[in-house]
Amino acid sequence: MKTVLITGAAQGIGRATAERFLASGHALVATDMSAKLLEELKSVAPDRVATLAQDIKADPAPDAAVDLALKTFGRLDVLVNNAGVGEPRPIHESDDSDIDRFLDINVRAQIRFCRAALAAMTSGAAIVNIASIFGFRGSAGAGVYAVSKAAMIGLTRQLAADHGPAGIRVNAVAPGLIRTPLTADRIDNDAAFRRQMVDTTPFPRIGTPQDIAAAVCFLASEDAGFISGHTLVVDGGWLVANGRRDASGAP
């Protein structure tokens, strides 16, 4: 039984990933801002879930989460750096608080969680970072969010180089358009957003949190035992095609 630490585990991609690891029989340390939603997750497998309500950007957060894993389950095998923020503005419209928000939560906190986890990990452990398709290409209006996700891809590569000799693998997943509580309203009601993201995705459906959970669990598993430094794109073909399709699915 592996011990898995997931940030932002209470809903959306984090919740789906937590449930998939639990279904595979693993122990879980789940952190999130919402204590209520964490308790709901804990009820899925009370004897295999430890929860911690925290703000990941707080200085004590990474060590507190790792310590909880070690004290409760005696080990830490997998870190899933899932928590993050979106809804960017173009850089020329961003103020310093916007810049700080994205870099503090999407980059600084992620690096600090990796650092804390690596101190507790041994050969066979794995880190999976959640990046984004916007980390690979420029996109109008993606602003500091895109910069932060590109940083996560770079962090993944660097950690794979540094810690591969110790038998620790580091990979990332780059989601495309995924329906979550944070994106549902824009998917359903924002026509411009649908033109940018839905109409340009070749595959004829929107992604689900379970799609990302499957990719994360694969990269953390022995089936991916010789994969490290890789970012797995899960986007229905948006990144490679990114062209409009009509209702029949034809370009």
How would you describe this structure to a colleague?
The protein is α/β, with parallel strands linked by helices and 251 residues long. The chain has one domain (3-179, 207-234): NAD(P)-binding Rossmann-like Domain (Rossmann fold), CATH 3.40.50.720. The protein is built from eight helices and seven strands; from the N terminus they run E-H-E-H-E-H-E-H-E-H-E-H-H-H-E. It has a seven-stranded parallel sheet with strand order 3-2-1-4-5-6-7, with helices on both faces. Helix 1 (12-23) crosses helix 8, helix 3 runs parallel beside helix 4 (96-120) and helix 4 (96-120) runs parallel beside helix 5 (143-163). The model has no long low-confidence stretch (mean pLDDT 90). One of its GO terms (molecular function) is oxidoreductase activity.
Provide a brief overview of the structure.
This protein has helices at 12-23, 35-42, 61-73, 96-120, 143-163, 184-189, 191-198, 209-220; strands at residues 3-7, 27-32, 49-53, 78-81, 126-130, 169-175, 231-234. The protein has 251 residues and is α/β, with parallel strands linked by helices. A seven-stranded parallel β-sheet has the order 3-2-1-4-5-6-7, sandwiched between helices.
